[in-house]
Recover the amino acids of this structure.
């Protein structure tokens, strides 16, 4: 039983870090989807077309 109790915090941290990473990936993906075209155009030096 002591061994099991010793591993509970480790599992908690793994779950917390995984949830944080999934949240960051989801919000980052939505951000890239909304801004990707603008960032790509500005990277290629087409930022003078400011119709977007």
């Amino acid at each position: 039983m002591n061994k099991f109790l010793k591993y509970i915090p480790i599992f908690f941290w793994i779950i917390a870090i995984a949830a944080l990473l999934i949240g960051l990936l989801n919000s980052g993906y939505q951000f890239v989807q909304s801004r990707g075209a603008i960032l790509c155009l500005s990277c290629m030096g087409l930022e003078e077309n400011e119709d977007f």
